[in-house]
Amino acid sequence: MLQIYNTLSRQKEYFKPLHEGHVGMYVCGPTVYGDAHLGHARPAITFDLLYRYLMHLGYKVRYVRNITDVGHLEHDADEGEDKIAKKARLEQLEPMEVVQYFTNRYHHDMELLNVLPPSIEPHASGHIIEQIAFVQKIMDKGYAYVSNGSVYMDVEKYAKDYPYGKLSGRNLEDIVTETRELDGQQEKKHSFDFALWKKAAPEHIMHWPSPWSEGFPGWHMECSAMGTKYLGEQFDIHGGGMDLMFPHHEAEIAQSCAALGHDSVHYWMHNNMITIAGKKMGKSYNNFITLEQFFAGNHHLLEQPFSPMTIRFFILQAHYRSTVDFSNDALVAAEKGLARLTEAYQRLMKIKASDATSEHLNPELLNSLRTRCQEAMDDDLNSPIVISHLFDSARAINTVFDGKGTISEADLEELRAVWKTYAMDILGLQLDGAQDAGAGMDAYKGAVDMLLNMRLEAKRNKDWGTSDKIRNELTALGFTIKDTKDGFEWSL
Ligand code: ZN
Fold this sequence. Notes:
CATH topology of the largest domain: Rossmann fold
Shape: globular
CATH class of the largest domain: Alpha Beta
Number of strands: 15
Structural class: alpha/beta
Radius of gyration: 27 Å
Bound molecules: zinc ion
Strand content: 5-15%
């Protein structure tokens, strides 16, 4: 039975959904004002693993992952201007053009990482009405106040009736000392009050009418409003990166309790962070690497390109609640590990069963592989253990491949089924190599180039037979070959 670590209770709990056979799951998605980086890959892959595993267990999952496009989450403290609005103003674009551009790029990156699309992907900007209604509910319950056209959560009043800070383990005194002086402090009763609705400054280009002012929803409102809209007043799982625990998720809990009278979420799950050479990722450290830069290998911290599957494997090699330290060497090691796994998978598809029984293989290892993989996944999604079990069984595959052992029909079938289920479907590793845009792709391109260079040489030697043969056979395989002044061009 699946156990997951609930951040709220600080322990592993048996997962029991609110409605039998169905799971409602909400994960905080990206802010689309720039390209996705390594820090975006981890929550996306962590909750993709959970989504895939829940479906494997037979649940019907409604997975909601939002797009933050109102921009306020990344408020530029230096300039006091919304990032999306700023980019739009500088580049003379409609804000929604900026949003669409980066949303498309995010989707492309996720597809390369083999992250399944969520069931619903709501945009904050498309749910202003729901957010206003949610703020109104909090107002009606008396836990919010209006100041100069903005609406703030009355945290002191709320904290008298509900435990504020229970998710992150903070109390109000901690929060007072932590709260940075940000814009709007003069309007608030207390520094720890947070905005539910903000009146827009004249230069702010993303704003909507509301009962309080022409403005925009506060930091945390979108997830409360959209989570409730699509998953109901109570739902099973809310996930996100650990960095969102405070203030974002703490504020969400407060908003839900204030508006609805109870918490919405049963299991809070948080993935740990990725550090780079022991440091937090961030613009100020000059160590911000976008996923595109990983795939292309063009960043000063990278010595080579890394395929999306290498990035996925690198992240899954660690348990989602432990920290992961990125370095070029760590990725090279992940690339090697993935290559060994890919080789084993491809051998597994090639080896033939013997007429007799399996010999010179560890029968225990074969018989218990599926159970051990399941036990590891049931233990709070322990992907590194699943990977180590797959490596163990790779030894058996290699023994048969090298002719040093035999495998029975039934054992071979089961082994293939376990690899397909756990490596491909649940871990989401594309071991068939079909979509490997990294090293495999380079080798394949190199091979086609080599053939076409041989054809070029044949033509120079007036060896039309060889030249035509290469051309015709590549064409038959689906390649389009074009002769150019300097040589050739090809595409598939
Ligand atoms: Zn959120």
